[in-house]
Automatic annotation (TrEMBL):
Predominant subcellular localization, coarse grouping: membrane
Membrane-spanning residues: 34-52, 64-84, 138-159, 171-193
Organism expressing this protein natively: Desulfovibrio subterraneus
Gene Ontology cellular-component terms listed: plasma membrane
One Gene Ontology molecular-function label: amino acid transmembrane transporter activity
Membrane topology recorded in Swiss-Prot or TrEMBL: Multi-pass membrane protein
Protein known as: Transporter, LysE family
Length: 203
């Protein structure tokens, strides 16, 4: 269960299009109106978690889970490398700060955001079955994870408002990226051991 939250935090709280936009909005002092946009992001993630969680439960079986887990571990490790190597340029999102963003904007943007699928697909189709999360548990955990997804742009917007433009530099976000990349790499290694190596060893 800890791996689910570690992966979710590692993916949701790294700088992406939604979080960069949230930081920019916070810098412009639009924190409270931006909460409607953040609510749309959270609902979009809930939709994805429920859709993939319940359909994935029908498709994924215990015999093929180690092989799917292996693909997921490799993908997470690849993602960790990309997060480590990225060079954020926050200034490029400043022109978006003038937009008036509401609930519908957040919902549509997150449903079309590739990073949303990066966050939900491994959790719903690999980690849920591996942790034996089924039935009502999928609904409950999806709600909790969606609240965390809501909290990601809220956090970035709050940081932008509190710390101002002095924090808007690549060095700060680079440190954040590398912390999150290390977390993702740990999750990948842990999943590979517990969900690939150990099951195949017992087989």
């Amino acid at each position: 269960m800890l791996h689910i939250f570690a992966y979710a935090l590692g993916v949701m709280y790294t700088p992406g299009p939604v979080n960069i936009l949230a930081f920019s909005q916070g810098l412009q002092g639009t924190f409270r109106p931006f909460l409607r946009f953040c609510a749309g992001v959270g609902i979009a993630m809930l939709i994805l978690f429920l859709l993939l969680g319940y359909t994935g439960q029908m498709i994924i079986g215990p015999r093929i889970l180690p092989f799917i887990s292996l693909a997921g571990c490799l993908y997470i490790a690849h993602l960790a490398w990309k997060v480590w190597a990225v060079r954020p340029q926050l200034g490029e999102s400043e022109d978006k700060s003038a937009l008036t963003l509401g609930f519908r904007d957040g919902l549509c943007m997150q449903l079309l955001n590739p990073k949303a699928f990066i966050a939900t697909l491994p959790i719903a189709t690999i980690q849920f079955p591996a942790a034996q999360v089924t039935g009502a548990g999928i609904l409950l955990l999806s709600c909790v994870l969606s609240f965390l997804a809501f909290g990601a742009p809220v956090t970035y917007a709050w940081l932008g408002k509190r710390m101002g433009r002095n924090i808007e530099n690549a060095a700060f976000m680079q440190i954040s990226n590398r912390i999150m990349a290390a977390m993702l790499l740990y999750v990948s290694a842990s999943m590979a051991y517990e969900q690939v190596y150990c099951p195949l060893l017992r087989a």
